Amino acid sequence: MNLVLEILTPMHIGNGDVLSPYSDYIYKDGQIYYINHQKLEDFIFKLDNASSLIDKFVDIIKKQASGNQSSKYKLENFFEANNLDIKEFTDKIVDCNTDIKNKQILKCIYTGSRPYIPGSTLKGAIRTSLIYGYLKRNSYNLNEIISIWKQNKYSYIGQDIFGKFSRDIMKFLQVSDTEPFSDTDIEIIETYRVDIESGKTKNPVVFECLKRNLSTKFSMTSKGKKNYHHLEDDFDYLYEQNEAVIFDYINDFFEDAIKREISELKSKYKGKGENPFLNIISFYEQLLNEIMEFKQNKNGAVLRIGAGKTFFENTINNIFSKNEFEEIKKIKKIKNNNPFPKTRTVVVDCEIIKNSLGWIKIYKEE
After folding, report:
1. How confident is the model at residue 291 (pLDDT cuts 50, 70, 90)?
2. Minimal CA–CA distance to 235: which of 315, 137, 362, 302?
3. What is the Cα–Cα distance from 291 to 301, expressed in whole angstroms?
């Protein structure tokens, strides 16, 4: 099945790399200039004073990286002092939502020079939804799930449902990587962790993100053969041409997660003044409407991937009762915070919470 993927809020899927503010980029007038070290090096080595310039460049990096407050001479000053046009030594120039003040930037995942969304990321979110749906539609034994957790270092990926290793029937579901985006489809977003009771922000993190309203394509293909593999009825979505059934599972999972989140954001805030999460609550209510429409038409789903997901959007724990979850928290040694989780990752603009990260919708290509 060929699908369209549309990005609803800024999205970050990391590759483990970071951009250093001391050598990799320059922030200027709301934009990030990515320094091309090879271009700069090639240019400098052609100059008569190459050795002196390189020493100056290295000295700036050392002083800035060490937090030397006595030196206000920054990488940008190096270009200005030597009459170098920054634009001539950059790979690209990217918009940034705020002055990120010498913070490192977490890079997103690329194929070559173009960002993309791995099929493994999408399949992981789909798998969690399918496990949740199976347990919701059938009875479950909490003690058995806890036993599996303990045997697998507290990792539960539905081993008792889908099977282990080579016997895992999810091998019949193939999810491709998306088609790559353009390298200009990136923006730099500073996010904060916000306490949902007090509204106070902390721990800013800066991400490379794919922009909102972008779209791309990928495929989700079931490979099971009805007259050969004889799967149980609960897994009929793994038969050829049955992929659309999976939309129901994804929508059910994220509908429950969103409803829980709206309730938490509305009820837990105890700070002064207006609830700071109103923009996100309003957006989530719109998502519920989209999910309802997808359920009626059976042609797509809403889901969340990448950075910013909450505990309950990343696990099946929303299925458990309050008492069951308290038991799980004790066994897994999860901090007994109330509310749990206590903070959310959000995008803040002019001290107003604007967005959360990672929401997408997928639907059949017409």
Report:
1. very high
2. 137
3. 6
- Amino acid occupying residue 251: N
Distance CA 181, CA 186 (A): 9
Positive or negative CA dihedral for 143, 144, 145, 151? Answer: positive
DSSP-assigned states of every residue in 158-183: -HHHH-SGGG-GGGGEEEPPPPPPPT
Mean pLDDT on 21-35:
92
**Residue 217, φ and ψ in degrees, nearest 5:** -130, 155
- Dist. CA 324–CA 101, nearest whole Å: 44
Burial of 185 (0-12, 13-18, 19+ CB in 10 A): middle
CA distances to 147, 265, 321, 342 from 335, rounded to whole Å, are 21, 20, 18, 10
Q: In what order do the strands lie in the sheet with 31-35?
A: 25-28, 31-35, 90-95
* Rounded CA separation 366/363 (Å): 9
3-state SS, 202-258, equals EEEEEEEEECCCCEEEEEEEECECHHHHCCCHHHHHHECCCCCHHHHHHHHHHHHHH
| Unique residue bearing structure tokens 């923009």 | 279
Q: What pLDDT score was predicted for residue 101?
A: 83
Does the pLDDT value for residue 328 go beyond 50?
yes
Q: Measure Cα distances from 106 to 20, 72, 158, 356 in Å.
A: 9, 25, 31, 17
Q: How far apart (Å, rounded) are the C-alpha atoms in residues 323 and 18?
A: 41
Phi, psi of 67 (to 5 degrees): 75, 30
Instruction: Render pLDDT for 172-223 as a digit per residue (tens, 0 to 9).
Output: 999 999 999 999 999 999 999 999 999 999 989 999 999 999 999 999 999 9
Q: Which letter does DSSP use for residue 22 in this model?
A: T
- Give the burial class of 28: count Cβ atoms within 10 A of its Cβ; 0-12 exposed, 13-18 middle, 19 or more buried: middle
pLDDT higher than threshold 90 for residue 258: yes
Residue 153 pLDDT: 66
pLDDT at residue 65 tops 80: no
Residues of the chain with pLDDT > 90: what percent? 71
CA distances in angstroms from 58 to 52, 75, 250, 280, listed in the order given: 10, 10, 51, 44
